[in-house]
Amino acid sequence: MMYNLYVERDSILHRLDPRVKILSSLLGILAMILFNSPYLLFILFTLLSLSLRFLGKISFKEQIKVLKPLTPLIIITIAIWPFILEPKTFGLFIGLGYALRLASMAMITFGLLMTTTQRELILGFIKLKMPYEIGLTLTIALRYIPTLFNLAQTIIDAQKSRGLELEKGNFFSKIKKTVPVLIPLIIASIKTAHELSIALESRAFGANKKRTFLYTIEMKGKDYIALIIVFLLFGLALYARYQLGIGYVKLY
Amino acid sequence: MIEVKNLWHIYEGRKIALKDVSLTIENEILALVGPNGSGKTTLAKHLNGLLKPTKGDVIVDGINTKEASVAELSRIVGYVFQNPEHMFFEENVFKEVAFGPKNLGLSKDEIEKRVEWALRSVNLKGYEDRSPYSLSGGEKQRLAIACMLAMNPKYLILDEPTTGLDAKSAESVKEVIRKLKEKGHGIMLITHDMELVLELAERVVLLYEGIKVFDGTINEFFQLDLRNYDLDKPELLKISERLSVGFVRNINEFVTSLLRRMRA
User: Fold this and answer.
1) Are residues B192 and B260 in the same domain?
2) In sequence order, what are the residues at sequence separation of 6 or more whose Cβ sits closer than 8 angstroms to the Cβ of residue A205?
3) Are residues B260 and B160 in the same domain?
4) Tens of pLDDT along B161-172?
5) pLDDT greater than 90 at residue A147
6) Rounded average pLDDT over B114-134
7) What is the pLDDT of residue A3?
8) Averaged over A146-155, what is the pLDDT?
9) A183: which chain B residues are within 8 Å (Cβ-Cβ)?
């Protein structure tokens, strides 16, 4: 079960302030939308992968592992463009570019998640003025994925002990067989949520508009430098795209 | 007879849960005791095939659990999980109990007969149309037992059957356990409630850090120094020891032996 992508390492990217990483990721995704030239997108993708490898100490193998689930989407992207654009080879070429763009955007997001702990990430979002309640909801949701997974396992064991054979049968009978697992799971989840809300309220959740934090984050010299570099790079991308006209292929 | 032969279980992530455990289970009330994390549940889950041995064998009435599915074994070994709510999903008690027999592919008549009999065995006759979630704690526990009984297993594993129940509900569950024993079922109680062990068990197996450290009669068991295993004797036994009235299993026995001693 992959519920947490974070990879524990000691790297420059890991040590950066989460706010810097969140903003950089947003700008990075925007930059990807600027260009559609497959050549340039390929260069950007390579640079991205290399910087994750050398600045974030995320090996190529780990990068491939998180991108793998996207394979169908990438193949569809490549396959669909030849039907839209003439000539077909040109369509395929552009499709390849769009696939690279998609992979790059995913890589940026995964890069953020792989180098930032959940706690830092949520703290980063809150410091960027996201309401605290949403941050807490996110934390709880992430925290409860493994718990629910274990609970589901217990329920499956209990129903198997009553002779339920989840593996047998065709597609539809398999769907029907999930009912004895889903109903206890949903009921237990609702009960847990209800107890959790009582526990939160009994610890004075929401009593004060302004909150203090036990763990806090602070922008240091290196964070400002990183932020400046990222903005400069983004400026460079805008300049290249709109002043020099690099990286854009006319489609029609 | 269930035979556990040199059973080892190692979970993914290399945690050794059971180390070379061997034992046999027959038609008796066996208490499987031990502190938290001693491997009780891991051992019990091997008996109906939910877990397969890393090394060693578990033979249930001649069937090696490695070669049988949980569904096949569920005809012989019933496993009542600790939290009954983890298995309830039907709209009423009747359908809930019928779920197991249905999975066994029995005829409609046979299912109805089995449900009837199972509900009567746990004193829940007349509850057929109630929602399982509307029952009290003790009733839920008894319903969970009925769900397993309807599959007519020879052995019944009960995981902490009285934990969290009030005295009256706990008593009703204990009564059902005694009745089942009389009907010839082999019963395994997984618990660290020593009062329950003293009241019900005939034989005790003690696990500690995945190793079977004791296997013997209840009388012998309570002669161990249980504090070495993060457990403690029931208060009744502590008092009877102080007053040197010997081994007693309940208040009545205690009073009788005390009076006999005083007269002597």
Assistant:
1) no
2) none
3) no
4) 988 888 888 888
5) no
6) 93
7) 59
8) 90
9) 88-89
Give yes or no for a contact between B197 and B34, defined as CB atoms under 8 angstroms apart: no
Q: Do B238 and B185 have their domain in common?
A: no
Percent of chain B with pLDDT over 70: 100
Could you tell me the two tokens for A9?
């390492």
CA distance A113 to A5: 6
Interface with A, mutate which of B87, B155, B156 (most A CBs under 10 A): B87
Whether residue B213 is found in the same domain as residue B244: no
**Gap between the Cα atoms of B64 and B62, Å rounded:** 7
Structural contact between residues B102 and B151, judged by C-beta atoms closer than 8 angstroms: no
Q: How far apart are alpha carbons B53 and B11 in whole angstroms?
A: 10
Domain that residue B256 falls in = 234-264
Answer whether A162 sits within 8 Å of B148, measured CB to CB. yes
Q: Are residues B199 and B126 in the same domain?
A: yes
Quick one: pLDDT band at residue B75, thresholds 50, 70, 90?
A: very high
Is B48:B73 a contact under the CB 8 Å cutoff?
yes
Q: What is the mean pLDDT of residues B198-210?
A: 94
Same domain, B30 and B65: yes
Per-residue pLDDT at A1 exceeds 50: no
pLDDT at A2 over 60: no
Of A161, A165, A187, the CB nearest to B50: A161
A22: part of which helix (H) or strand (E)?
Answer: helix A18-34
3-state secondary structure of B126: coil
Q: Are residues B244 and B158 in the same domain?
A: no
Cα of first residue to Cα of last residue in chain A, in angstroms, is 45
Question: Is the Cβ of B48 closer than 8 Å to some Cβ of chain A?
Answer: yes
Whether residue B126 sits in one domain with residue B64: yes
Over the stretch A20-65, which tens digit does the pLDDT of each residue have? 999 999 999 999 999 989 999 999 999 999 999 999 999 999 999 9
Q: How far is A158 from chain B (nearest CA, A)?
A: 6
Tokens 């706990």, located at residue: B170
Residue A129's pLDDT band (cuts 50, 70, 90) = confident
A136 has a chain B CB within 8 A of its CB: no
CA triple B160-A180-B53, angle to 5 deg: 55
Strands, DSSP E only, in chain B? 2-10, 16-25, 29-33, 55-60, 63-64, 77-80, 155-159, 186-191, 203-208, 211-217
